[in-house]
Amino acid sequence: MPIRSIWRHALQGELQLIIGPMFSGKSTELIRRMRRYQHAQLKCMVVKSKIDDRYTNDSLVSTHDRQMMKANPLTRLEDMGDEFMKYDVIGIDEGQFFTDSLPWTGPLSA
């Protein structure tokens, strides 16, 4: 997940990965982190793939235990255009569904 540093004056990004097998709580951890950043008053956005409709409609990230968070459904990360520049933290749920995740996140975390 690319983010600008918690310190607002820093311009360097950071990439955090939440990795694990199915049913290991990856989306739950993403929601936990995003809520923590929101509590710190950082401007946050969650995106998810339009093809992921496992538990709910396409505008929510949902976990196996029914935790939910508003998300922007996308086909490709580049569909965000420059919109991502308005946010301090961007969470990407189920990043493997985005074919452009590496070229999109690489420059942001450099």
TrEMBL record:
The keyword Kinase applies. Keywords: ATP-binding, DNA synthesis, Kinase, Nucleotide-binding, Transferase. Signal peptide: none annotated. GO terms for biological process: DNA biosynthetic process; thymidine metabolic process. GO terms for molecular function: ATP binding; thymidine kinase activity. Gene3D superfamilies: P-loop containing nucleotide triphosphate hydrolases. Its EC number is 2.7.1.21. It catalyses: thymidine + ATP = dTMP + ADP + H(+). It comes from the Eukaryota. InterPro entries: P-loop_NTPase, Thymidine_kinase. It is an enzyme of class 2 (transferase). Belongs to the thymidine kinase family. This is Thymidine kinase. It comes from Aphanomyces astaci. The lineage of its organism: Eukaryota, Sar, Stramenopiles, Oomycota, Saprolegniomycetes.
